[in-house]
Write the structure tokens for this entry.
Amino acid sequence: MKYIKFILLGIFFGIVGTKSEFVSWFRIHEMFRFESFHMFGIIGSAVILGAILILIIKKGSIKGLDGEQISFKNKDKSFTRYFAGGTIFGLGWALTGACPGPIYILIGNGYIVFILVWLSALLGTFVYGLLREKLPH
Amino acid sequence: MNVIEFLSQPWPWYVGGPLIAVVMFSLLYFGTEFGVSDTLRNICSALGAGKYSSFFQFDWKTGGWNLMFVLGGLIGGYIASTWLSNPDPVALNPATITRLENWGIEPTIGIAPESIFSISGLLTLKGFLMIIGGGFLVGFGTRYAGGCTSGHAISGLSNLQLPSLIAVVGFFVGGLFMTFFILPSILSL
């Protein structure tokens, strides 16, 4: 039962993603060509409202569902892994038009070939795990 | 106009963006964190990848909530496309439409180019590169960077994390390079 709220929130995310079209290959392509404000508006407004909400959480005004203070982990300090990994992801994002969240949402939309995008992404994650010790981070 | 008709219109960016922030906030409220690419590592671990790399040796069930979240995402995509669908094409910039048509892509049907992202598209070289090659780069790159659009661009930037800003700059370096210099050649195949 503890999982129900996550399924419901995921359903909401899937509907938002489809209706606001951030799962659309066309929208991602248009973003990378700077031919529309749509995707920049989505990401920008999400980050601005998100930053305000996190600021309110950090001031201690909002506690978590379990009654505890919500805690944040700072990301490890580095440059190489974020820039190199980010660039490799960006190359793939512009090809598939989908980051990991939209892959699931697109399968639900009936684009069943995205099951293969997903399987290939699993393989990519697996290969990263094999090569991790050899890669600069 | 009834509620279903109202919701079936395309949602503008100033609705979609804030609702993503609501999703991120809800996951924090539930004691977790918005980051979808973790599900890929979880599934690798569940499938036994720990035998080959210590990177996958952890209790994948701790990410069960995230697997439920993406299962919900899949269901939500089904619901939106089945009961909230809108017959009009995505309202793209006319310049984008003209260029895509010159590449033989029909931008007036669906939310992804169906000539590429379909089983028949998979059997073409460009379809194979975009589906299988693209998927591999997404999976490899997100794990190398330690997160994807949800973990870095939304969660990380909202929390003013410098590493996430570096990752997002990388997303655009890779995405712009692909879009301007490689994708035109792939689409001409």
About this structure: Chain B has a mean pLDDT of 95. DSSP finds nine helices and no strands in chain B. Chain B touches chain A through 125 residues (CB under 8 Å). Chain B has two domains: 1-85, 116-189.
